[in-house]
């Protein structure tokens, strides 16, 4: 309903346009009075029926509120989920680290008195093993501690634990090494690396594969092929002598080993070359 009223100084003219009027003292909630023209001592007013407009406006406002609420809730849920995932990951990581804190691996560092950075030393010692000339008995090298708890003296003959010596003369030393360690005894250290679950000695390489951590690298060594068999060990690239004694006392000997092509495929290997090695943990 629209009512248009013109007010002049001489007369009053009332024009009704479409719909019912709003008479008396009753109030019309859906009627809005708006001044349309004011000038020349005349006033033009219109009473607009906005009931339909109100319905559309309410629907629009409700829709916008719903959208805003949904967007806000989506943001809140994303934050909750993200924070929850971060907290779960942090909890799992902390639990794994706590679990690994009490775990670790051990390895022997041949040719050195100490352990690499990041590893704990369990003990330092001297390399021992069966004499190179013995035909029977043990074949592995031993890392004998420097503070042994000795057994009783015995009269039977079965000597198998001798000191280990470097055999690094001019004809057998690895390329670039000095002959100064010839006939000197070999030290060793037993190392413990925390938060590791596996140790791997890789012959033929000086670097570890992806995902593994290098503890140290060096040369693959064993006894001479004309002697009785010994294990292969990875002797540290920066090997040192046990002390200044360099008497040729033999015992368990350390010779660098080299490759021999034939059944060993060359390439990828090279004939009669030093064999590198690396000790890796994970």
Automatic annotation (TrEMBL):
Gene Ontology CC, one term: extracellular space
InterPro entries given in the database record: Ca-dependent_lectin (IPR051077)
Keyword entries, A-Z: Signal
Coiled coil: none
Keyword field contains Nuclease: no
PANTHER family hit by this protein: PULMONARY SURFACTANT-ASSOCIATED PROTEIN A, SHORT-CHAIN COLLAGEN C4-LIKE
Name of the protein this chain belongs to: Short-chain collagen C4-like
Organism field: Mytilus edulis
């Amino acid at each position: 309903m629209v009512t248009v009223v013109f007010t002049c100084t001489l007369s009053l003219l009332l024009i009704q346009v479409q719909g019912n009027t709003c008479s008396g003292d009753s109030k019309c909630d859906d009627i809005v009075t708006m001044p349309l023209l004011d000038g020349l001592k005349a006033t033009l007013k219109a009473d607009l029926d906005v009931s339909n407009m109100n319905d559309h406006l309410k629907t629009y406002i409700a829709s916008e509120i719903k959208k805003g609420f949904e967007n806000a809730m989506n943001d809140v849920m994303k934050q909750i989920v993200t924070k929850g995932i971060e907290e779960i990951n942090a909890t799992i990581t902390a639990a794994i680290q706590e679990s690994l804190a009490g775990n670790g691996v051990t390895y022997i560092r041949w040719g050195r008195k100490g352990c690499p950075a990041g590893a704990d030393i369990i003990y330092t010692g001297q390399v021992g093993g069966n004499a190179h000339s013995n035909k029977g008995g043990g074949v592995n090298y031993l890392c004998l501690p420097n503070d042994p708890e000795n057994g009783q003296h015995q009269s039977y003959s079965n000597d198998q634990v001798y000191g280990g010596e470097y055999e690094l003369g001019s004809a057998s030393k690895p390329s670039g090494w000095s002959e100064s360690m010839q006939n000197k005894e070999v030290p060793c250290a037993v190392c413990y690396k925390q938060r590791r679950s596996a140790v791997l000695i890789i012959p033929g390489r000086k670097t570890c594969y992806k995902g593994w951590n290098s503890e140290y690298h060096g040369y693959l060594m064993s006894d001479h092929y004309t002697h009785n068999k010994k294990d292969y060990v990875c002797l540290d690239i920066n090997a040192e002598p046990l002390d200044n004694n360099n008497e040729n006392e033999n015992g368990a000997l350390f010779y660098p080993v080299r490759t021999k092509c034939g059944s060993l495929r060359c390439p990828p290997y090279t004939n009669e070359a030093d064999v590198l090695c690396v000790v890796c943990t994970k």
